[in-house]
Write a structure and sequence with these properties.
The complex is a heterodimer of chains A (400) and B (428). Chain A is α/β, with parallel strands linked by helices and 400 residues long. Chain A folds into two domains: 12-213 and 337-396, Crotonobetainyl-coa:carnitine coa-transferase, domain 1 (Rossmann fold), CATH 3.40.50.10540; 237-329, 2-Layer Sandwich (formyl-coa transferase, domain 3), CATH 3.30.1540. Chain A has helices at 22-30, 63-68, 82-93, 106-109, 114-120, 145-151, 172-195, 205-210, 216-223, 253-262, 277-280, 283-297, 302-311, 322-327, 329-333, 376-383, 388-396, and strands at residues 12-16, 34-39, 73-76, 97-100, 125-130, 199-204, 225-227, 237-240, 243-248, 315-318, 338-342, 347-351, 357-358. A six-stranded parallel sheet of chain A has the order 3-2-1-4-5-6. In chain A, strands 8-9-10 form a three-stranded antiparallel sheet. In chain A, a hairpin with a 4-residue loop joins β11 (338-342) and β12 (347-351). In chain A, α1 crosses α7. Chain B has two domains: 11-216 and 362-423, Rossmann fold, CATH 3.40.50.10540; 244-347, formyl-coa transferase, domain 3 (2-Layer Sandwich). Chain B is elongated, with a radius of gyration of 25 Å. With 428 residues, chain B is an alpha/beta fold. Chain B contains 17 helices and 14 strands. The chains are: A alpha/beta (400), B alpha/beta (428). At the A-B interface, α2, α6, α7, β6 and α8 of A face α2, α6, α7, β6 and α8 of B. β13 of chain A pairs antiparallel with β6 (203-206) of chain B.
């Protein structure tokens, strides 16, 4: 058993990604690829995004940076300067994958477009992640995570009926773009394994979001109905002593009502009419069910309610916050969280763990997120052979 | 070999159902993997009976808009795994496959005799991927849940919405099912294929959907463990942007049907849910924003002069921004701001996406394909374009449509034997 082998351990990745693409290169890095984050001299702008370690804004203390850059190395390089461009080209010769998130056409304008890079390295996979893709009338439009959620149609269906549509927490449009991009890059990699041929992967965040809508598009196509935000209608929350829980008893109505009945709280819910799904989803009926159930759930904590409910095969799910997630018995038992040492902070931080468990090539955080330009010497001196003097000149000119 | 498609030459024995599993093989099918979806009439994929359907369509388990959008390009076979003779056929299929996928309740594949240890015996380099909700080990192994539950459990709901009300989450939108979990799984499978290309070795992959979704809470765990801060919803706001929100725009003078749940009675009313998202991050963007909206006097007031002042007076600022958007269409708001270099986008609904958005149209995102029972129907297209080996969306299979091809041509079972298996209910 080669438990320490890495699925992507043979690959070198150049990471020129901003927030929209950071989770893509994190996947590649945690799967064992040698991902080199290329930061502009002075550090990557996403180091300025909070929250921060001990709430102290500092480029080496951004928790946002930490989360998205595990297992990567870092060099600084101004790819727009003539020297920087030549250095990047040298790096491209030995790279397998490059991930970038510049505005469409930007790399071409500095002489580093796919057609140029392909000449240097025909096997290169260039993955470009942008809000709207490399082509089309909106290709030059600016977007953020919020705008991605909006234009992709996800935002429209989220929120309370009596409030504006509301964004999902975190930066989920970016995550969607990144995880799709990662899959696309690996599809291209399989083709390269077979043929040696590289290619350009053009990822549109809008399309990634528009493909995560479950039934929105088909509801319009087939029934001309516009799905609107439904608040908590479909998945109501029950109030518990210490928060909320979600209970779905549609398929186990008898089990559910006999449970309530055993504690004297079933009221009229045992009536046959509640088993009719069309009846049950009427807003006033939902309201009534929630109120009856709340009387019971309010007297207990959410974990107890859910463990007892699940024992009875009812889909009962606690509405967890970060503390609950951290203490969740399932995650604890499975050693999900990963402790990573940060010697510079004299501290060990707890990171979210493996999104997938591969038996032969396990996911792992190979190193803590890099300091700005931490690997300049490794790459520039040891690998590319620059002398100390040459490096000093490059530094002085602001190239690295 | 036809190398038009990048994954040509790979085959998946796909036992997955509902949403998250079929989305994995949807991607692989589009890029040329031969996906053999194993279904059974005796225990139908729940999606086959789901809305939406064309209102005038003859009832059938082949016409669900969701099923047909989740399963394009796959081969469909029927096989009743509860029948004792089914195991041998399933094993035969797996022995010539590269990947096996399921998203059943833990223990189901083992119960059928298709656990990983068994499969390695018949195909030593097989890649087996399973997608349990909670994981195949641990105290909550047998917990049940849907995509929306996974989201709630993982802590996404808690960091979403108005902190003064119960956590809203993303309503009926099951974020984990249609992006997070399938593409994490695809990433794992494709990585394992690369590893197999190098070493000849297969492996077992477990994607506990709860765990992969926790990854998307981003900094919530670090922020709590390092700073003791429990993150909550911020509505549409962000600490490092202002204005940053969703603003009401002018209603359209035409009526549409809004629908909260697929089967609920629609509300017929003016198309008044018109909103535009605006995101201003830097000082330069703020200046451009002010100029684009015509520099009204309030933009010059001291209380909006600096980032901190704008943050302090964000409620008032949002009201003033909405005063500007309210009599314009969201398209006009977006175009005006984008011309000035400010990020803005229409909060698009299903109609906007499918019939109006010029970008998706130009990119050929939605794909209309003729289906023998459902007619001409829209499918989502691909989320990325590959320059050398583009993918392709082909229609979804009818239940058991490819029995003949798979059992006869791929597995080489004689015709009379197929007849017997059909009559005896093995292929039901």
């Amino acid at each position: 058993m080669m438990a320490t082998s890495k699925a992507l351990g043979d690959l070198r990745v150049l990471d020129l990604a901003g927030p929209i693409g950071l989770y893509c290169t994190k996947q590649l890095a945690d799967l064992g690829a040698d991902v080199i984050k290329i930061e502009p001299p002075g550090g990557d702008p996403s180091r300025a995004i909070g929250p921060f370690y001990h709430s102290e804004p500092h480029p080496e203390k951004s928790l946002y940076w930490f989360h998205f850059n595990t297992s990567k190395r870092s060099i600084t390089l101004d790819i727009e300067s003539p020297d920087g461009r030549e250095i990047l080209k040298r790096l491209v010769q030995k790279a397998d994958i490059m991930v970038e998130t510049f505005r469409p056409g930007h790399l071409d304008s500095v002489g580093l477009g796919y057609s140029e890079l392909k000449k240097i390295n025909p096997g290169l996979i260039l993955t470009s992640i942008t809000p709207f893709g490399q082509t089309g009338p909106y290709k030059d439009f600016k977007a953020s995570d919020l705008v991605g959620l909006a234009m992709g149609g996800f935002l429209f269906i989220c929120g309370w009926e009596d409030e504006p549509p509301v964004r999902v927490g975190g930066s989920q449009a970016y995550n969607m773009a990144s995880i799709n991009a990662c899959s696309g890059t690996l599809v291209a990699l399989y083709h390269r394994d077979m043929t040696g041929e590289g290619q350009h992967v053009d990822v549109s965040m809008q399309q990634c979001v528009a493909h995560a809508l479950q039934w929105v598009t088909q509801m319009y196509d087939l029934q001309h109905r516009i799905m609107s935000r439904s608040g908590r209608l479909g998945v109501p929350l029950q109030e518990c002593e210490d928060g909320w829980a979600n209970m779905i008893a549609l398929f186990d109505w008898d089990v559910f009502t006999s449970w309530l009945d055993s504690v004297g709280e079933a009221a009229d819910l045992a009536d046959e009419k509640y088993k009719d799904m069309d009846y049950q989803i009427r807003p006033e009926v939902r309201q009534h069910i929630t109120e009856v159930t709340d009387t019971f759930t309010k007297a207990h904590d959410k974990r107890w309610i859910c463990e007892e409910g699940q024992k009875r095969h009812i889909i009962a799910i606690p509405c967890n916050n970060a503390k609950d997630v951290l203490e969740n018995p399932q995650l604890v038992e499975r050693s999900y969280f990963v402790d990573v040492e940060h010697p510079e902070l004299r501290d060990t931080l707890k990171y979210t763990g493996a999104p997938y468990r591969l038996s032969e090539t396990p996911w792992m955080i190979g190193r803590r997120p890099p300091l700005t330009g931490e690997h300049n010497t490794d790459i520039y001196a040891n690998e590319l052979g620059f002398t100390e003097k040459e490096l000093a000149v490059l530094k002085e000119r602001g190239v690295i | 070999m036809n190398r038009k498609f990048p994954l040509a030459g790979t085959r998946v024995a796909d036992f997955s159902w509902f949403g998250a599993g079929p989305y994995v093989t949807r991607l692989m099918a589009a890029y040329g993997s031969e996906i053999i979806r194993v279904e059974s009439n005796t225990k139908l994929d729940g999606m086959r009976w789901q809305a939406p359907r064309k209102p005038d369509a003859t009832p059938s388990y082949n016409i669900s808009g969701m099923f047909n959008n989740f399963n394009p390009g796959k081969l469909g076979i029927s096989l009743n795994m509860s029948h004792p003779e089914a195991l041998g056929i399933a094993k035969k299929l797996i022995s010539i496959s590269d990947v096996v996928l399921d998203n059943f309740y833990p223990g189901t594949m083992e119960k059928w005799g298709l656990g990983y240890e068994e499969l390695v015996k018949i195909k030593p380099d097989i890649i087996v991927a399973t997608m349990p909700v909670m994981g195949i080990t641990g105290p909550y192994t047998l917990w049940r849940g849907f995509g929306t539950s996974i989201r709630t459990m993982a802590g996404i709901d808690y960091i979403t919405g108005n902190p003064e009300r119960p956590p809203i989450g993303t309503g009926m939108a099951a974020l984990p099912d249609f992006s997070c979990n399938p593409y994490h799984t695809a990433t794992a499978i494709l990585s394992a294929l690369h590893h197999r290309n190098k070493t000849g070795r297969g492996q077992f992959i477990e994607v506990a959907q709860f765990e992969s979704t926790v990854c998307w809470t981003e900094t919530a765990i670090l922020d709590y463990t390092v700073n003791g801060h429990i993150q909550e919803g911020m509505r549409n706001r962000l600490p490092h942007a202002v204005p940053h929100g969703v603003y009401r725009c002018r209603a359209e003078d035409r009526e549409v049907d809004y629908c909260a749940m697929p089967e609920s009675v629609p509300e017929h009313r003016k198309k008044d849910e018109r909103w535009c998202a605006i995101a201003v991050f830097t000082g330069d963007e703020w200046k451009a924003f002010c100029k684009a909206i015509g520099s009204p006097p309030w933009t010059k007031e001291e209380k909006f002069a600096t980032f901190l002042n704008r943050k302090k007076n964000e409620d008032e600022l949002d009201r003033l921004v909405e005063k500007w958007t309210i009599d314009k269409s969201p398209e006009e708001v977006m175009t005006t701001l984008q011309k000035a270099g400010v990020a803005a986008g229409v909060v698009q609904d299903g109609e906007d996406l499918l019939t109006r958005d010029p970008q998706l149209k130009e990119r050929g995102f939605h794909v209309y394909l003729d289906h023998p029972e459902a007619g001409m129907i829209a499918h989502d297209g691909l989320t990325f374009s590959l320059s050398a080996t583009p993918g392709e969306i082909r229609r979804a299979p009818l239940l058991g449509e490819h029995n003949e091809y798979v059992y006869r041509e791929i597995l080489g079972i004689p015709a009379e034997e197929i007849d017997r298996l059909t009559v005896e209910g093995v292929l039901e």
